[in-house]
């Protein structure tokens, strides 16, 4: 995985970034730049832009003057938050409660990104969805399942962090195993330990596939972009349904234990 900006439509650019675990293994990360009907831009998630990446974004946004908001959608994706704000300090800054607590000195907007009030601010062009039945901000900082998923209606593109993934293995492994849409492997730990949590998650996933049935592309963190050419006759909603079927055993075990 390398740093690059990929134009997915005339209004949507996927920023692919580098993120190394223990300073060695690059699992990648991402952000998305979206042009609104007003001509202004927003950044979905934060990434420190340098070199060619920054030149590309600045050329599109009049040196960042047209970036009106930076929207942090994953409570545990915080590495680049401060740098992104420093690069574009005039952009309104949105985040989850964890972002606000981790960086109390930053000028956060009052609407949390997982709230209905926030979703209403951008409802003309976006839909946002928060997974049900799972902890949004887990007490265990190693559980990164939940995030706010964003759907840009004009471009028909889903921007998703860890919750929904598109795993594309490198090299020979990629030839042996085709890329697939999956839910993050920490689902079992993220499910709330109470009755009906598994049922609520299942219903949310079914609704997501139905609500975003027109989706044509998926930008996933730590992995890759699912482009129309790679769909091979299987729509993104159908792939979400397949991903749900693959975690059914996890959900059934949870139901057996908690009801």
Detailed description of the structure:
A hairpin with a 4-residue loop joins β14 and β15. This protein starts with a strand and ends with a helix. The mean pLDDT is 90. It has one domain: Metallo-beta-lactamase, Chain A. The chain is globular, with a radius of gyration of 18 Å. 29% of the residues lie in helices and 24% in strands. With 259 residues, it is α+β, with helices and mostly antiparallel strands. The chain has nine helices and 15 strands. The strands form four sheets. The chain has a six-stranded mixed β-sheet, with helices on one face. A five-stranded mixed β-sheet has the order 9-10-11-14-15, with no helix packed on it.
Briefly summarize what is shown.
The chain is an alpha+beta fold and 259 residues long.
Q: Based on helices, strands and strand pairing, what is the structural class? A: alpha+beta
Q: H/E series, N to C?
A: EEEEEEHEHEHHEEEEHEHHEEHH
Helix fraction bin: 25-40%
Give the CATH H-level superfamily: Ribonuclease Z/Hydroxyacylglutathione hydrolase-like
| Biggest pleated-sheet summary | 6 strands, mixed
Query: How many domains?
Result: 1
Tally of DSSP β-strands: 15
Number of helices: 9
Strand order, biggest sheet?
1-2-5-6-7-8
Instruction: Give the termini distance in whole angstroms.
Output: 42 Å
CATH domain class name: Alpha Beta
Task: Indicate the radius of gyration in whole angstroms.
Answer: 18 Å
- Average pLDDT works out at 90
Give the CATH architecture.
Answer: 4-Layer Sandwich
* CATH topology-level name: Metallo-beta-lactamase, Chain A
**Fraction of residues in β-strands:** 15-25%
């Amino acid at each position: 995985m390398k740093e690059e900006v990929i134009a997915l439509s005339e209004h949507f650019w996927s920023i692919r970034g580098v993120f190394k675990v223990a300073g060695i293994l690059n699992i990648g990360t991402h952000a998305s730049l979206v042009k609104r009907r007003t001509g202004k831009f927003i950044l979905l998630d934060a990434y420190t832009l340098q070199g060619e990446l920054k030149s590309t974004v600045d050329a599109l946004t009049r040196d960042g003057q047209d970036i009106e908001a930076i929207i942090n959608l994953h409570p545990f994706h915080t590495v680049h938050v401060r740098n992104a704000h420093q690069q574009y300090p005039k952009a309104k800054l949105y985040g989850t409660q964890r972002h606000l607590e981790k960086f109390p000195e930053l000028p956060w907007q009052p609407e949390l990104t997982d709230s209905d009030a926030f979703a209403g601010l951008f409802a003309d062009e976006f839909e946002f969805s928060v997974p049900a039945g799972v902890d949004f901000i887990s007490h265990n900082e190693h559980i990164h399942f939940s995030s706010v998923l964003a759907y840009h209606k004009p471009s028909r593109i889903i921007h998703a962090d860890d919750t929904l993934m598109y795993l594309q293995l490198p090299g020979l492994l990629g030839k042996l195993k085709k890329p697939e849409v999956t839910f993050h492997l920490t689902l079992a730990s993220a499910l709330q330990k109470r009755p009906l949590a598994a049922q609520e998650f299942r219903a949310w996933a079914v609704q997501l596939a139905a609500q975003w049935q027109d989706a044509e592309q998926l930008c996933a963190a730590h992995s890759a972009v699912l482009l129309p050419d790679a769909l091979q006759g299987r729509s993104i909603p159908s792939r979400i349904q397949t991903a749900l079927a693959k975690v059914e055993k996890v959900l059934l075990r949870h139901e057996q234990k908690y009801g």
